[in-house]
Specification:
Length: 190
């Protein structure tokens, strides 16, 4: 059977279009959480993290949430000291958990972040609360050396290890449960 050159070109274009769609889907999935801002603020004998994340969930996660599955998010924090001629030295790490659940009786979303529990009328308002991190103590001030420069980094991710077992298995086989931001980095000089 002979193929015309236009048929070959058409197949190639379809393959290219499919690859582009996969790339766009992967990028959209990877950007389900983005970091808008982050800073360290001095508190009594240390520093606290203030950060704002934009959080969106895909339909699979929203359906599970609305059927009673609690979704756990983790805010990771790292502080390192840059070194010449060697890898950066990690000075401190911290994690902060945020829990999101749906309460069918009141038809509200509940956000618990270790500092309090908040109720929201809509999923959008609840996700705004999830992404609004304030006053999370992440390091002791005694660790920092005056005059040294540090690199701080933070990110937010969905913690699939906190899901019920059937969803944990699903998280291993599908990208629907991989929701995280890129690391947001900034310089700090105490």
């Amino acid at each position: 059977m002979l193929c015309s050159p236009s048929a070959d070109r058409h197949g190639w274009l379809e393959a290219l279009a499919g690859a582009c769609l996969l790339f766009v889907a992967a990028v959209a999935q990877a950007e389900a959480i983005s970091v808008h801002s982050a800073e360290l603020v001095p508190v009594a004998d240390g520093y606290a993290l203030n950060a704002d994340f934009s959080v969106s969930l895909n339909p699979v996660v929203i359906e599970a949430l609305n059927k009673g599955v609690t979704i756990h998010f983790v805010v990771d924090f790292e502080l390192s000291r840059p070194r010449k001629y060697w890898f950066n030295k990690r000075v401190a790490t911290a994690e902060h958990s945020v829990r999101l659940s749906y309460v069918p009786l009141t038809r509200q979303y509940e956000v618990s972040n270790g500092q309090g529990t908040y109720m929201a009328e809509s999923l959008g308002a609840a996700l705004q609360r999830v992404g609004h991190v304030r006053g999370v103590r992440v390091l002791n001030g005694a660790i920092l050396r005056k005059g040294s420069e540090y690199e701080a980094a933070t990110r937010m991710r969905l913690d699939s290890t906190q899901l019920p077992p059937p969803f944990q298995v699903s998280s291993l086989t599908t990208r629907d449960w991989v929701i995280e931001s890129d690391w947001y980095r900034w310089r700090l000089k105490p």
